[in-house]
Design goal:
alpha+beta; two-stranded antiparallel ribbon
Length: 111
């Protein structure tokens, strides 16, 4: 609230994905040693956005970001405050039958 009053707006970090909450199969959770049965299914990747440059693809399921588990889209949004902008963050995702590790550098969210 203080930042909104002081600056007139709140700026957020952005990685350039459109996603939805997904439930993972129990076998996937066990096979990959995941901490939860949820994640963010990537439906769209903004061309030349941070996620695209990092190698994230449509169909990936984001399960960790910046060392924290991701159970849904709200978790990912919480981990993208203005302070995350420009700071490389590790990201883990499921792709087909494997787990991948990437690094993404969030940018300021477009207005």
């Amino acid at each position: 609230a203080q930042r909104l009053i002081r600056d007139g707006s709140i700026r957020r970090g952005w990685i350039g994905v459109g996603g939805q909450n997904v439930r993972l199969a129990r076998r996937q959770v066990l096979h990959h040693g995941l901490e939860s049965e949820g994640g963010v299914g990537v439906l769209a990747v903004e061309p030349d956005g941070p996620a695209s440059r990092a190698g994230i693809r449509e169909g990936d399921v984001i399960v960790r970001f910046d060392g924290r588990r991701i159970e849904g889209i709200d978790d990912l949004h919480r981990l993208l405050p203005e302070e995350a902008v420009g700071r490389p963050a590790p990201l883990e995702a499921l792709r087909r039958d494997g787990k991948i590790a990437l690094e993404v550098v969030p940018e300021r969210a477009p207005r």
